[in-house]
Amino acid sequence: MGVTNGGKTTLAEKLKNMLPNCDIISQDDFFKPESEVETDERGFKLYDVLDALYMDEMVASIRNWMKSPASSGVVTEEPQNTCDNLKNIYILIVEGFLLYNYEVYQPADTPGYFDGHVWPMYLKYKSELEENASVQVDYLDGTKSQEELLSYVYSDIVQELNKLREERNIIRLECCRV
Question: Which of 48, 141, 168, 174 could bridge 121 with an S-S bond, Cβ 3.0-4.6 Å?
Answer without folding.
Answer: 48
